[in-house]
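If it is no trouble, can you show me the amino acids of a protein and the C-alpha coordinates describing how it folds?
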Amino acid sequence: MPRIARERTKHHQPSARPSTHDIASAPVPLLERTAAEPKTTKRTKRHERHLKWVERIDSAKKAQRAAQRREGRATNKSALVRGMHTMDESLREIQAQVLAHEITETPKTTTTKMKARNKSTVEEEKRFNQVLLHPAFQQNPLATIRQHLTNTLKPSESNPK
Protein backbone atom coordinates (compact mmCIF):
# COMPACT_ATOMS: atom_id res chain seq x y z
CA MET A 1 0.00 0.00 0.00
CA PRO A 2 1.49 3.43 -0.94
CA ARG A 3 2.38 5.96 1.67
CA ILE A 4 0.29 9.03 2.04
CA ALA A 5 2.15 12.31 2.53
CA ARG A 6 0.88 14.23 5.50
CA GLU A 7 0.74 17.97 5.58
CA ARG A 8 2.93 19.61 8.15
CA THR A 9 1.21 21.78 10.66
CA LYS A 10 2.78 24.39 12.85
CA HIS A 11 1.47 23.59 16.30
CA HIS A 12 4.27 25.38 18.15
CA GLN A 13 3.32 28.80 16.74
CA PRO A 14 -0.04 30.08 17.90
CA SER A 15 -0.54 32.34 14.92
CA ALA A 16 1.35 33.32 11.82
CA ARG A 17 1.43 37.00 12.80
CA PRO A 18 1.34 38.43 16.33
CA SER A 19 -1.49 40.75 17.16
CA THR A 20 -0.76 44.42 16.81
CA HIS A 21 -3.46 45.68 19.18
CA ASP A 22 -4.14 45.12 22.84
CA ILE A 23 -7.73 44.02 23.29
CA ALA A 24 -8.28 45.70 26.67
CA SER A 25 -7.09 49.19 25.73
CA ALA A 26 -7.35 51.56 22.83
CA PRO A 27 -6.10 50.38 19.44
CA VAL A 28 -2.35 51.17 19.84
CA PRO A 29 0.10 49.15 17.80
CA LEU A 30 2.14 46.82 20.03
CA LEU A 31 4.58 45.63 17.44
CA GLU A 32 5.92 48.14 14.97
CA ARG A 33 8.09 46.66 12.27
CA THR A 34 9.33 48.79 9.43
CA ALA A 35 9.67 47.44 5.93
CA ALA A 36 13.33 48.55 5.72
CA GLU A 37 14.32 46.40 8.72
CA PRO A 38 15.22 42.93 7.43
CA LYS A 39 14.20 39.87 9.37
CA THR A 40 17.30 38.38 10.98
CA THR A 41 17.40 34.64 11.16
CA LYS A 42 19.54 32.39 13.27
CA ARG A 43 21.54 31.43 10.20
CA THR A 44 22.36 35.05 9.25
CA LYS A 45 23.33 35.87 12.83
CA ARG A 46 25.66 32.85 12.91
CA HIS A 47 27.16 33.88 9.57
CA GLU A 48 27.75 37.45 10.84
CA ARG A 49 29.42 36.14 14.02
CA HIS A 50 31.66 33.92 11.92
CA LEU A 51 32.67 36.80 9.65
CA LYS A 52 33.54 38.97 12.66
CA TRP A 53 35.60 36.12 14.12
CA VAL A 54 37.50 35.60 10.85
CA GLU A 55 38.12 39.34 10.61
CA ARG A 56 39.58 39.44 14.15
CA ILE A 57 41.89 36.51 13.40
CA ASP A 58 43.06 38.09 10.13
CA SER A 59 43.82 41.39 11.83
CA ALA A 60 45.79 39.60 14.55
CA LYS A 61 47.80 37.68 11.93
CA LYS A 62 48.51 40.88 10.00
CA ALA A 63 49.71 42.61 13.16
CA GLN A 64 51.96 39.66 13.99
CA ARG A 65 53.49 39.63 10.49
CA ALA A 66 54.09 43.39 10.64
CA ALA A 67 55.80 43.04 14.02
CA GLN A 68 58.03 40.28 12.67
CA ARG A 69 58.97 42.42 9.67
CA ARG A 70 59.74 45.39 11.93
CA GLU A 71 61.82 43.19 14.24
CA GLY A 72 63.78 41.76 11.32
CA ARG A 73 64.50 45.22 9.96
CA ALA A 74 65.50 46.52 13.38
CA THR A 75 68.22 43.93 13.84
CA ASN A 76 69.79 44.42 10.40
CA LYS A 77 68.85 47.71 8.80
CA SER A 78 70.24 47.11 5.35
CA ALA A 79 69.91 44.17 3.02
CA LEU A 80 73.65 44.25 2.41
CA VAL A 81 74.44 43.64 6.06
CA ARG A 82 71.84 40.83 6.17
CA GLY A 83 73.60 39.28 3.18
CA MET A 84 76.98 39.53 4.90
CA HIS A 85 75.92 36.99 7.51
CA THR A 86 76.02 34.25 4.92
CA MET A 87 79.53 35.33 3.96
CA ASP A 88 80.51 35.36 7.61
CA GLU A 89 79.13 31.84 8.05
CA SER A 90 80.98 30.59 4.99
CA LEU A 91 84.24 32.13 6.27
CA ARG A 92 83.75 30.32 9.55
CA GLU A 93 83.15 27.05 7.70
CA ILE A 94 86.35 27.55 5.70
CA GLN A 95 88.28 28.29 8.87
CA ALA A 96 86.87 25.14 10.49
CA GLN A 97 87.92 23.11 7.43
CA VAL A 98 91.40 24.60 7.51
CA LEU A 99 91.77 23.83 11.21
CA ALA A 100 90.49 20.29 10.71
CA HIS A 101 92.94 19.85 7.85
CA GLU A 102 95.82 21.14 9.99
CA ILE A 103 94.94 18.76 12.81
CA THR A 104 94.74 15.69 10.60
CA GLU A 105 97.78 16.62 8.56
CA THR A 106 101.25 15.53 9.72
CA PRO A 107 103.82 18.28 10.28
CA LYS A 108 106.07 16.96 7.50
CA THR A 109 103.44 17.46 4.77
CA THR A 110 102.57 21.03 5.81
CA THR A 111 104.40 23.33 3.47
CA THR A 112 105.20 26.98 3.86
CA LYS A 113 102.71 27.75 1.10
CA MET A 114 99.84 26.14 3.06
CA LYS A 115 100.89 27.95 6.22
CA ALA A 116 100.85 31.29 4.42
CA ARG A 117 97.40 30.57 2.95
CA ASN A 118 96.02 29.62 6.36
CA LYS A 119 97.51 32.72 7.94
CA SER A 120 96.03 34.99 5.27
CA THR A 121 92.62 33.32 5.71
CA VAL A 122 92.65 34.00 9.44
CA GLU A 123 93.73 37.61 8.88
CA GLU A 124 90.97 38.15 6.31
CA GLU A 125 88.37 36.80 8.72
CA LYS A 126 89.55 39.16 11.47
CA ARG A 127 89.47 42.10 9.06
CA PHE A 128 85.99 41.14 7.85
CA ASN A 129 84.67 40.97 11.42
CA GLN A 130 86.14 44.40 12.14
CA VAL A 131 84.43 45.82 9.05
CA LEU A 132 81.07 44.34 10.11
CA LEU A 133 81.37 45.88 13.57
CA HIS A 134 82.41 49.34 12.33
CA PRO A 135 79.62 51.91 13.02
CA ALA A 136 80.01 53.68 9.65
CA PHE A 137 79.53 50.38 7.83
CA GLN A 138 76.49 49.50 9.93
CA GLN A 139 74.84 52.85 9.18
CA ASN A 140 75.42 52.92 5.42
CA PRO A 141 77.39 49.99 4.00
CA LEU A 142 77.40 51.08 0.35
CA ALA A 143 78.61 54.59 1.06
CA THR A 144 81.35 53.22 3.31
CA ILE A 145 82.55 50.81 0.62
CA ARG A 146 82.47 53.59 -2.00
CA GLN A 147 84.52 55.87 0.28
CA HIS A 148 87.03 53.08 0.94
CA LEU A 149 87.47 52.47 -2.78
CA THR A 150 88.01 56.15 -3.54
CA ASN A 151 90.62 56.31 -0.74
CA THR A 152 92.50 53.17 -1.80
CA LEU A 153 92.49 53.50 -5.58
CA LYS A 154 95.11 55.74 -7.12
CA PRO A 155 93.86 58.68 -9.21
CA SER A 156 95.51 57.24 -12.32
CA GLU A 157 93.58 53.97 -11.93
CA SER A 158 90.21 55.66 -11.40
CA ASN A 159 90.52 58.01 -14.44
CA PRO A 160 92.05 56.10 -17.37
CA LYS A 161 93.44 58.31 -20.16
About this structure: The CA atoms of residues 5 and 123 lie 95 Å apart. The chain has a mean pLDDT of 76. DSSP finds six helices and no strands in the chain. The longest helix spans residues 42-75.
